[in-house]
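cache lookup: miss for this entity combination. No prior model stored, computing from scratch. Input as submitted by user K.M.:
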Amino acid sequence: MEENLIEKLIGAFMSLSGVGYKTAQRYAYQILDEDEEVANNLASSIIEVKSKIKICKECGNFSSSDLCDICKTRKSKIICVVKEPKDINCIEKVKNFDCVYHVLHGCISPLDNKGPDDIRIKELLSRVSTNNYEEVIVATNPDVQGEATAMYIAKILKPLGIKVTRLAQGISMGSELEYADEVTLSRAIEARREL
Amino acid sequence: MEENLIEKLIGAFMSLSGVGYKTAQRYAYQILDEDEEVANNLASSIIEVKSKIKICKECGNFSSSDLCDICKTRKSKIICVVKEPKDINCIEKVKNFDCVYHVLHGCISPLDNKGPDDIRIKELLSRVSTNNYEEVIVATNPDVQGEATAMYIAKILKPLGIKVTRLAQGISMGSELEYADEVTLSRAIEARREL
């Protein structure tokens, strides 16, 4: 009996990505060792987040009300398209840059059977058509799926006469040329700027 | 508001050992993406384990009743002393070896202010005095704390005329001499056996 309860908890932890049996076992035994409060806090946070957080009608970010805080308060002519809600946090860390967001909840990926209709591109199109945005920045990841999605978005939005941009690619701040891969370097050379 | 609920869940995940902000964030956003069922299963398993699992009166293993399954069903003259409940699983994997267990819930560690009175050594002493055990195998980890604990247990049990043994130390099965550290090698040489 006791084995089963602990094994059930280990199994539940293993449903988290990147958590194998050993890690799940460590978490489970830690929960057993921990104060009641810590365990209850984790359990109640999980339930609370699942029951209260929904998706913002406007941008697709996670939100506890119909509109998220950003859509409620911010007016901007620039809309930044990201793959996932957590990407919003990354861009929000950049100071002095104000934009509203659109979360796609995925990227186009034919290998995973994900086409344009499976992500929130229709919603983006209708937002752009009905609002007066000046620019759409596509901030999907610089990988194959992200690039394909960016291309697709540019293709459908450009006929509407809207400016579509993409985050610049190049070598990162503080890195060394020696460790930059060839594609990154070639893009950095292509996009070189005059000083 | 929505930030706070998600941040609270991230904070709750960070209370697990070895989980930093990025990992906790990954878990939290996965919980948000996951089916209700997966999240509820994790939350309810945590609560269930915390409310139903207690410590076996006899051996100190985790158990849902006063006596754990092993203490209830197994009669053995050999008692195996381990540091933590999960160590029991490891030894149970060895077939053809029947023993009962005693969980210390820690090891002697002066640096962490943990003396013999802070772990379940008194309980071991009273079990050994009142029962008719033939042998105590000390299966604490082969590190400084585990060794110190083994020494201490041997010192207090030997006067009672009971055989106290320690798991053999040497090179592990399938490893290479080249990668064995000096202490392990020297112990393996000391404890060499005739073929």
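stored under new cache key. The beta strands of chain B are 54-55, 62-63, 78-82, 100-103, 135-138, 163-166.
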